[in-house]
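Illustration: Aldehyde dehydrogenase domain-containing protein.
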Amino acid sequence: MVTTMDSDLLAIQEMRTAVKAAKDAQQKYMSYSQEQVDRIVKAVADAAYEKSAELGRMAVEETGMGVAEHKKIKNEVGSKAVYESIKDLKTVGIIKEDKANKVAEIAAPFGVIAAIIPTTNPTSTAFFKTLISLKTRNAVVVSPHPYAVKCTAESLKVCEEAAVAAGAPSGLVQCLTMSSMEATQKLMTHPDVNLILATGGGALVRAAYSSGKPAYGVGPGNVPVYIERTAKIEKAVENIVNSKSFDYGTICATEQAIVVDHNVKEMVLRELKKNGAYILDLEEKKKMEKAISPVPGKVNPKIVGKSPQTIAKLAGITIPDGIRIIVGEETEVGKHIPFSMEKLSPVFAMYTASNRTHAKELCLSILSLGGRGHSLSLHTENDEVAREFAVDMPVSRILVNTMSSVGAVGGTTGLLPSMTLGCGTFGGNITSDNVSAKHLMNIKRMAYGIKEIELPKNVETVPTVQKSETEQIVQEMLKSMNSTDKVDPETVSTLVNQIIKQLQNN
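Result:
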């Protein structure tokens, strides 16, 4: 017990020291020019890109999740692609000016960013959050996932060294190396932390939102993919299998369930097998359900980011070595239906839709189980169908005729490259954007007067007569009368009030 307490105390002290160092460095960094900032950001992006392969291997070795070659691609997106998307963004001084309306916009940094990193993408997310923080003159304090501390810390070391070599103040990039949930929670409530960038499980994101700090959090991505009857089946299935097998399904935007039009189901099944899919029979499906979710309503963490062969062995099923994904046909959706949940692994559910309306109902049920606001994938040659789904589905991204996993993060689409995908209010988030540098700065506005407003002049007002004045008038009237006169004071008071009201109305 003493050892555990000591570890927690040391972790909390490490966190406080990191925040102080980050704040001190950020105070200096605030005075840097746009040219200085851009030079630092480019140096960090180049260094991260150069180490993409090495850190990809390190991530797989430490976490046991994913594919090293695919982690390399993620690291390249998190470094080079992110840099290319933000390099021309103005983040210092006056960043925009409307001369006609005499309004100028001025950028100001948030300060210290607390960044929570997931175990599924520990190095690419670290690169991404560091780059967008430095671009906006913020400091960043990173809390890695307990199972990915070494590779995340090494990624940040690469960033920090490159930043300092390019002229940044030492201490801008900090990493907490002592795994402690208590330290992470205290980081999110630290008075010198100005914003939280939370990528991780639902409990952690909720903690970020309840910290009292501004926070960008993301929701789960139980992504359905609809294969509509007009789709180019060969290409669609190839994209889907490539996407689902990419890094063994660890990107939250990866497809989780195929919804196929009944008219093309047999063609889809044929293409799935051709592309390395293993279709489970009923007995195998029952075994796989227990492997996916030994405890009802919860996905087994032992399958996350694992190969199909590893998952099959865990389920007691034998599959060929060349299999890339595992598919189980399903008809129901719910927490008690393992195949319908977000599995973050190369395991697919497949539903058959009788028509487009039925397909929408299935997609909505899958999203409502745990993916509202995130993404939906669609393969069709009918643009009207794509637009209909885009309008009707409660998601922030609709990926058409592409790999959902890579497309959602900007790899194969024109979306902003990002490793933090907002889910909007559909999923309880503040933004539906792909979060980037533009989300990490305050924008002040200076506005000159350009319009004149005429106020009414010489407005006559009738003074309000208080109750005490009414009583005074009544008393004076009573005194002026003869004592022999019989006068009711209440009657006089009523008459006076009526006269006063009439005068005010006039």
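Reading the tokens back as a structure: Residues 223-415 form a domain with the Aldehyde Dehydrogenase; Chain A, domain 2 fold (CATH 3.40.309.10).
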